Amino acid sequence: MPRANVSTGVELEYDTFGSPDDPALLLVMGFTAQMIQWDEAFCSTLADAGLFVIRFDNRDCGLSTKFDGVEVDSAAVMMAALGGTEVPPVPYTLSDMAADAIGLLDHLGIESAHIMGASMGGMIVQTMAIEHPARVRSLVSVMSTVGDPAYGAAAPEAMGALLAPPPTTRDEYIAASPMWMTWQSKKYQDAARTQALAAVSFDRSFYPEGGPRQLAAIFASGDRTAKLGEVAVPALVIHGRDDTLITPSGGFRTAEVIPGAHLLFVSDMGHDMPEPLWPMLTDAIISHTRSA
After folding, report:
1. Which range of residues forms the domain containing residue 125?
2. What total number of domains does the chain contain?
């Protein structure tokens, strides 16, 4: 797959689906998740509808640039952010990750794009819409939140699973992956599929060291509520009723503060996008981009 030099010292691994002559849809994945979490069939469905679909690995994840050896006390950053005190220095913020995505559009010669992000990716695309509005045709924020700790707080069991020390071997990683089902869509849980994805992800790039830096970026970036109130691009917010990692109030709040945003609140959807829901989700995304 190709790589793009998007800023000094940062390269992003990416791939594309469809024709570059079609309107671009940039997909931004979430915390520690590689771009392969955007399933190829899902991407192809969007491309077949007339979108030039781009997915990529965020910095510190997958095959993109990793900040090896750069230390951060993510727990201290979280505590300071939640306690309203001064946040310690962090290696980078969501603004830097948003700038990476803009750099990828520059690399591809794309003046403006529809942007869609899931979880932390939703936070990144919200930041793109705030800081780079001229580059954004429309926004889709999926299972995300606005950075205000009063909204979207994870259920204890989901946060515990997310922050559990990562296994160190391939077999242990695959065996432990069913813990992800803590936040997945209850109706569509599939342990075998979850373990298969874990195997592919481990083999492609197992890099738990990036997690604390990405987590610190989330908490150090603060509350976007006021600035989201100034966003003028068409916005679609998608959230699942069963989401325990970013609970539904995060999605409701996102839709509430972005002027004119539409909310798609999905029954039987957790903190994932299971295949049985793809027809509904892709129809909503395609309709949103066309109307925008």
Report:
1. 3-154+209-291
2. 1
Q: Which of 118, 104, 107, 126 is nearest to 59 (CA)?
A: 104
DSSP 241-279: TT-SSS-HHHHHHHHHHSTT-EEEEETT--SS--GGGHH
Tell me, rounded to whole angstroms, the distance of Cα 151 from its chain centroid.
17
Pairing assessment for the beta strands 24-28 and 113-118 based on DSSP bridges:
parallel
Please say whether the dihedral angle defined by the alpha carbons of residues 73, 78, 83 and 89, taken in this order, is positive or negative: positive
Question: What is the model's pLDDT at position 88?
Answer: 95
Q: b/e string for 187-214 if b means 16 or more Cβ within 10 A?
A: ebeeeeebbebbeebbeebbbeebbbbb
For the record, the structure tokens of 83 come out as 């306690």
Dig out the tokens for 249 from the structure.
């109030």
Name the token pair of 161: 């699973």
Predicted TM-score (pTM) of this structure: 0.97
Q: What is the pLDDT of residues 45-66, one digit of tens each?
A: 999 999 999 999 999 999 999 9
Residues of the chain above pLDDT 70, percent: 100
Residue 181 per-residue DSSP state: G
pLDDT at 31 over 90: yes
* Closest alpha carbon to 136 in 117, 161, 163: 117
Q: What is the CATH number of the domain that holds 76?
A: 3.40.50.1820
Cα–Cα distance, 81 to 221 (Å, whole number)? 9
Q: Rounded to the nearest 10 degrees, what angle do helices 210-220 and 74-83 cross at?
A: 20
Question: How much is the average pLDDT of 199-215?
Answer: 97
Q: Which two tokens stand for residue 45?
A: 């469905």
